[in-house]
Amino acid sequence: MSLTPEDLEDFARLDCSGTQVLLTGSTSGIGRAGALALGRLGADVIVHGRDADAGARVVEELEASGAEARFLAADFADSEALWDLAATVRAATDGLDVLINNAGGVFPEAQFTDRDVEYTFQVNHLAPYLLTAELLDHLRPGARIVTTASEAHRLTSLDIDRVTRATNPRGGRRSRLASALPTTGIGSLTRAQWAYSHSKLANVLFAKELADRLAAAERAVVSNSVHPGAIPGTGFARSLPEPLSRVVNSLDALPGTSSVADGAAALLFAALAPRTAGVSGRYFAGREPTLPSAAARDPEAARRLWERSAALLGIDEPLAEYG
Ligand SMILES: NC(=O)c1ccc[n+]([C@@H]2O[C@H](COP(=O)([O-])OP(=O)(O)OC[C@H]3O[C@@H](n4cnc5c(N)ncnc54)[C@H](OP(=O)(O)O)[C@@H]3O)[C@@H](O)[C@H]2O)c1
To answer: I need a surface site. Which of 16, 183, 207, 224 has the fewest CB within 10 A?
Structure first.
């Protein structure tokens, strides 16, 4: 039987009363399991996703365990919704102790957003970048930011031009991502896999650059990224095309995969465990601090990603003077 996060020694005596948490992507999968565990540990939880019914069910379960909870909907493909989400969080709380940037997935049908940014890059990277930027001043001293990354980040290097639509000098618009690969069948899978890996690389680079800038700004806030494990039992596999979805779902039986509770424990380990207090700029594979890929340790790539992300969103660079 799989253990729940609070069964682990790290959380055994942890009392999170008064701890305010925003956990994005908590209507399903590891985010949902993490939110419920946070509630059982005594934290107040803001549940987020797009699915209002699923969100209401998580809030109901949290309230039944005695936690304070509310659901806020925001589609991460829509930057306006992110600004609204941040404003609502600021109005609803007097500060956050934990921000877990967890919402995301693989999007095989994904194309470009109205900002001419590839959908996966927008949802998995630009959205948490924007949300974090908007909430930086709302984080209490000692706050922790956790960004859910993936070992898939190792499959590629940073190529922002490939996920933005460049103007074609002969008229119209094109992108190397859109034009280089077919859009259906195995081709779309390959494209989706690349877009996913690239967005997860962005997550690792972002978390590290954020940690460095927060340290330079002498803010008592830490930032880390986490690979939660390969977890077949979440909604993650549902977004894959058949027959891959069925194959991935059947991986539960194979060694080397993790349970949903394990994945939630990995998030909570970075977000709350006394053992990781003060740790910043690290990448955790499960609960193990791990060296990310060389591409994820490239400071020039991290800086470029930081600057281009702000430009793509049309915002001032957060912590610009500390880069
Ligand atoms: N499962 C794995 O093997 C695995 C491995 C490595 C990393 N991860 C990462 O773990 C995180 C959680 O995934 P999971 O496995 O728990 O999958 P999941 O069950 O599909 O959960 C994904 C969550 O993200 C939200 N989400 C997806 N697209 C969104 C959008 N456009 N706007 C707002 N919210 C959105 C979903 O909410 P709604 O459905 O309500 O919109 C849901 O709450 C992801 O970042 C994923 O990349 C998973």
So the answer is: 183
